[in-house]
Amino acid sequence: MIGEVGLAGDIRRVNGMARRLSEAARQGFTIALVPPSDDPVPPGMHALRASTIVAALQYMVDIADHRGTTLATPPSHSGTGHVPLGRGT
């Protein structure tokens, strides 16, 4: 996860998001849990965008339950559908 969690449970963008995503991709991560933004995502990386800690936790539970398969975006999140899971190949 890259971001800041507010007292109300909202997930906020932090400075240097593009740089942080690039470094995560360089380290072999293929998924990043981030707040909604227009920040570019490096090739080969998928950004799971969550605006609240509840949505972020739902992603994490789904990842744990379906490790190595696919993940459907939580109903409360308007996303693109399914993304592959995992770190590196």
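Above is the first protein from milestone M3; the second protein from the same milestone is given next.
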Amino acid sequence: MRFDGDDMLDRRTFLASSLCLAAQPVLAQGASEAQAFPSGRITLMVGFGAGGMTDVSSRILASVMEKALKTPVIVENRGGAGGVLAINAVRQMPADGHTIVSFLTDAPFTASFQGKPINLDDWAIIGGYMPQERVLFAVKDAPFNTAQEMIAYAKTNPLTMSDGGSFWSARVMEAFAKKHGLQIAVMAQRSGQAASTDLMGGHVSLAETGTGTPAWTAAKQGELKILATLTPGGLAAFGMPQVPTFEQLGADYVSRQYYGYAIRSATPGDRIEKLRATLNEILSDSAVRAQFSAIDLTPGWMDAKGYEALLQSVARDGEAMRKYLNS
């Protein structure tokens, strides 16, 4: 059969229109799939060991987050190097929004101190979710009862302190010991749980962990001594205004501990914003706040801009402390 010019044009127009109509459901399905987030389980990578407060707080948030996002949220512990090991691991994973990593305020300093600096341009901060007071504990039978007595004792008697996974706080303790001429050896651990176990088992004389840890609970029950806080906030909010801060004891460097999360900056912006909004909403939930308060933790939302500024400030302080420790 032969078509003349007009017939051929009509036939081509008909075929093109048919193809476009046929393609529309496929294109719509593709667009819907591209916009769907999350499309599978989310992994919350925690850079510290199980039982520590990064782990415990993340598990509280994960259980609520999976209801809000309607997908499983799995907490995976990859402790080591003060949280940097997990950060480096997530940097190698797809930037699709399905892997979040714990990103504490001391992360850039910790990585830089270890000779493997973090490029903050690689990361989008989701937000900060919890400040924490860092506490110096001592065994119950220690031959000192106060921080001042510990300082006098450690000038001539060697002590060992287990740190609760906070690389920053451990260096604060070293700087404090250097300034006062104290004989304190710092033993690294991967979590507040591990440091608490060291102290309660009598393996060390001192431990640095945070509120909410097993050491904190034991101290409240009279099984350990609380000497001071390495953070400037103190313990007045916990009914212990008499406990001095390192700042009050003359320390030049203090710990500023805030917990937060980050995700690869190459992640699509709408996914980053969805995670930010979800975390913010969860932290405003009274039931979630009650779970935190029950173990002496205090949730507090800090937006990405504020958290980034805090990260940079801590990094500057850390650089000054590193120079002091190496001098």
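Note on the second protein: Strands lie at 42-46, 73-77, 99-102, 123-132, 134-139, 159-163, 184-188, 206-210, 224-229, 257-264.
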